[in-house]
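Record 1 of the preview.
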Amino acid sequence: MAHATITVRLNNVLGDVVAVNVGETGAYENVSEYLRDLIRRDKERMDKQAFDQLRAELRLSFAASESSYVSLTASDIIDRNQETIET
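->
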């Protein structure tokens, strides 16, 4: 796996937040550990948002009446997608 090195500049307020959370009195041993945890949590939040959006869209689909559905064959779908690609 490739590693990325980043440089971050923080104002005094954000720097103080990091200082409180890192070191002997903080929950993290070093700044890298703290940032990795924040990024992981942010990724989990984004993944949850995407899943919740998908779930909401599926609920709407399953709540639709049978009459709103159109029967399509695989050929119909392929043809429709080809038209989309060509335009």
